[in-house]
Amino acid sequence: MLESEITAKGRTILPKAVREALGVGPGDRVRYFVVDGEVRIRAVRPIQRLFGVLSQEGPPATLDDMERAIVDGATDR
User: Cα angle at 26 between 22 and 31, to 5 degrees?
Assistant: First the structure.
């Protein structure tokens, strides 16, 4: 179990283990969600971090390829 103190201004420091688990560091942002009386913390991931995550071998898909895939998925082909 991890703890941190809350200052008079309502600030706290995320323990190192929490920062590591979230993969956050100085300048990063986190979001707080209150769910059923509990607080959950998630790292905010800017869209720029997704660049290059997906890779594809071969030529890019055409609009016809995409439309065909949509039809195939909708009709369970």
Answer: 45
